[in-house]
TrEMBL record:
Ranges annotated as spanning the membrane: 21-41
Keywords: Lyase, Membrane, Metal-binding, Transmembrane, Transmembrane helix, Zinc
Family of this protein: Belongs to the alpha-carbonic anhydrase family.
Listed PANTHER family: CARBONIC ANHYDRASE
Cofactor requirement: Zn(2+)
Protein name from the UniProt record: Carbonic anhydrase
Domain of life of the source: Eukaryota
EC numbers for this chain: 4.2.1.1
Keyword Zinc: yes
Reaction equation(s) it catalyzes: hydrogencarbonate + H(+) = CO2 + H2O
Length: 312
């Protein structure tokens, strides 16, 4: 049986500067960070659902890159790796955190601080040694029905919702590690998503990048991670323009659930032209290229508070 190591990092050893609570001081930093991750500037000239600005028209690296995302993860073709996956999280990853929401007209994002920093750290297999990443933000992708919406596919199967958890390297915030979590429809609400879904009404209307809404609720980031799973790891890109490459992707092969009622709340969010956001996913691109010759499939037990060991 493969062994797995999971522990919480001591923030006394791995420190990053947390954001100021004064939103007005932090907005410039926040604006540049969100443009990089979501590719959604206030004057963005791309979209998802138009022949004139949809994914097939995206240029630059989106068109010429060889390590693009998202991809279809065909389990019979990926390279199975017989070793443990070591995910090491700081204890802040498992504590309740207040948060902000933002609707930029493309998706809804969650941040813990206005400038997209946080004390929630992660490191482990596939990341540079001794180079932790901090949680930066997360956002969602969905479709117009219960059968499409995810960006990644597994064995050609599409899912109605996908969560992207963005992490930035402490030493170089331009280096990204993203967790991709897929959802299927359930008859019951997902309680982990409830603090977000129940407050989407606060951000129903799209705003510019400088508008963040504090939410009267709290979340534990660790709760969004699947409990038992194989993880799929590959080198990819941002899934929105400018489609920057060099992103370490970890897609969890343990499908989470969301109710149809909860999913409708996402579809009720509005674009800047006041139309509902019903389609905000990029179609899959070629999985294997000359530069990306393999995708790794690794067994792992994903973090749970009961299995955490502290050091320091």
């Amino acid at each position: 049986m493969w062994k797995h190591s999971l522990q919480f990092l001591s923030t006394q050893k791995l420190q990053i500067h947390t954001a100021t609570t004064i939103i007005s001081i932090s907005l410039i930093l926040f604006s540049s960070a969100v443009v990089l991750v979501n590719g959604a500037g206030s004057d963005a000239n791309w979209c998802y659902d138009s022949l004139s600005c949809g994914p097939e028209t995206w240029g630059g690296t989106c068109l010429t890159g060889k390590l693009q995302s998202p991809i279809n993860l065909e389990l019979s073709s990926v390279k199975k790796v017989a070793k443990s996956v070591n995910l090491v999280l700081s204890r802040e990853y498992g504590t309740l955190n207040s948060f902000f929401l933002q609707n930029n007209g493309f998706s809804v994002s969650l941040l813990l601080n206005p400038d997209e920093t946080s004390p929630c750290l992660v490191r482990g297999t596939g990341f540079l040694p001794n180079e932790p990443y901090y949680f930066s933000s997360f956002h969602f992708h969905w479709g117009p029905d219960d059968y499409t919406g995810s960006e990644h596919q597994i064995n050609g199967r599409k899912f109605p919702l996908e969560l992207h958890m963005i992490h930035r390297q402490v030493g170089d915030p331009n280096k990204l590690a993203v967790f991709g979590i897929l959802y299927k429809i359930s008859e019951t609400d997902n309680p982990t998503l409830a603090p977000i879904v129940d407050n989407l009404i606060l951000v129903q209307n799209a705003t510019d990048l400088l508008t963040l809404i504090p939410v009267p609720a709290a979340v534990k980031l660790v709760d969004f991670l699947p409990k038992k799973v194989r993880v799929l790891r590959y080198q990819g890109s941002l899934t929105t323009p400018p489609c920057t490459e060099g992103v370490v992707w970890t897609v969890f092969d343990d499908i989470q659930t969301i109710s149809a009622r909860q999913l409708m709340k996402f579809r009720s969010l509005l674009k800047k032209d006041t139309r509902p956001i019903r389609n905000n996913f990029r179609p899959v691109v070629p999985t294997y290229t000359e530069q990306r010759k393999s995708v790794l499939y690794m067994k792992s037990i994903v973090p749970s508070l009961s299995s955490v060991k502290r050091n320091g």
